[in-house]
Specification:
Layout lengths: L10 H12 L2 H14 L3 H25 L5 H9 L1 H33 L6 H16 L3 H23 L19 H14 L6 H4 L10 H24 L4 H6 L3 H7 L9 H27 L7 H16 L5 H32 L10
Helix pairs in contact: 1-7, 1-10, 1-13, 2-3, 2-8, 2-10, 3-8, 3-10, 3-15, 4-5, 4-15, 5-6, 5-13, 5-14, 5-15, 6-13, 6-14, 7-13, 12-13, 13-14
């Protein structure tokens, strides 16, 4: 793997790459998704999902410590051999492409529904992916700098949400705690877990961190804590603002929360916010374009062409009819693949590396 100086990033930049890879369009609909099973306990589901992510980060950390200069798709071949490694790498590539495609579909659908209802979906998709491909072609250091700047927009949502506390709140919507039952809360945590996807990017970013690796685990843990509390906060404020029946009818409850705000000089706060939130939503697509392109092992000269090809694939995926039933089915199968690539494969790789006493210095068999 080529590790050019232009690809080096700091732990500070890693923190914001983590955040930007995870926060996107899923946040706006998360309260609607978790209430289907967890009802008023949806915020507890989000906390459980954060704990699950932290456990996976521990597994990632132990695996990466054994292979500090290799990325995910190189580790598979180091442990399993070239043939089996490439088979798994194909699954890894498909996962990033399909998750990126799903994120872009939801992105396009959201923009069309709330901002540009008369604009054809393919034009919106083309504009979004053109900008995403342009940045994904850049060096990792440039992408990281952009993500750091874009993170300021996340604070905008947090600040804007403060005004939401001036609207009517009903604490009884979350009482009694745990009334949905442990099973339903755990089922709801699966939706939260899928919304938090993006942390697996560590498996591709770790070798490029130029500083002391000892502080990396603390950095990613702090990023996960921020994401968990951020998601939990918005699920909580939304759950106490709307009843379960209302949330079931709202596609993007967070935007509906902002929609209820109106001031003398500002109206439709939700549309103003969404116009700005386009940038954080685009960062998720950029991340998956980058991870997918890196997973095929493209050399530096080939990398721009690979990104362009993957961008074209994402565009073709977005041409899938935006029917709710089709998107739900697509999301279901992509979720299954994500569980395999993000949770199962790294865990098995760590176990095998320990049992077979494999590490970066050992020879592949």
């Amino acid at each position: 793997m080529e590790k050019e100086m232009t690809n080096n990033i700091t732990k500070f930049q890693l923190f914001f790459i983590f955040i930007q890879s995870q926060i996107g369009v899923a946040l706006l609909s998360l309260p609607h998704d978790v209430q289907k099973s967890a009802k008023g306990d949806g915020w507890l589901s989000t906390l459980i999902a954060g704990v699950a992510v932290q456990l996976m980060l521990i597994i990632y950390w132990q695996l990466l410590r054994r292979f500090p200069t290799l990325i995910y798709t190189e580790i598979t071949q180091k442990i399993l051999g070239v043939f089996l490694g490439k088979v798994l790498n194909l699954l890894i590539y498909l996962n990033f492409i399909l998750v990126g495609g799903l994120a872009t579909i939801l992105f396009v659908k959201l923009v069309k529904l709330w901002l540009l209802p008369l604009t054809p979906s393919w034009i919106i998709s083309l504009l979004i992916l053109t900008s995403c491909v342009y940045l994904a072609i850049s060096d990792l250091k440039i992408i990281a700098r952009f993500f750091v700047l874009a993170s300021s927009l996340i604070l905008l949502l947090a600040v804007t949400s403060i005004f939401g506390w001036f609207t009517t709140k009903e604490i009884q919507y979350i009482l009694p705690l745990g009334s949905s039952g442990l099973k339903n809360i755990i089922v709801g945590s699966q939706n939260s877990l899928l919304a938090m996807l993006g942390f697996e990017g560590l498996l591709f970013l770790f070798p490029f961190i130029i500083e002391n690796k000892k502080g990396v685990f603390k950095t990613i843990s702090m990023a996960n804590l921020f994401i968990t509390l951020f998601y939990t906060y918005f699920v909580f404020i939304t759950v106490i603002s709307f009843s379960s029946n209302q949330l079931a009818q709202m596609r993007e409850p967070v935007l509906n929360l902002l929609r209820g705000m109106s001031y003398n000089m500002i109206d439709r706060v939700d549309l103003i916010f969404l116009s700005i939130w386009i940038v954080p939503m685009a960062t998720s697509t950029i991340s998956y374009l980058y991870f997918a392109s890196k997973s095929v092992g493209a050399k530096k000269k080939q990398y721009p062409k690979v990104v362009l090809l993957n961008g074209l694939i994402l565009f073709l995926i977005t041409l899938i009819p935006h029917d709710d039933a089709i998107i739900t089915l697509f999301n279901k199968y992509v979720s299954y693949l994500s569980y395999v690539v993000v949770f199962l494969i790294p865990t098995l790789l760590l176990i095998l590396s320990i049992l077979l006493k494999k590490n970066e210095m050992s020879e592949s068999t």
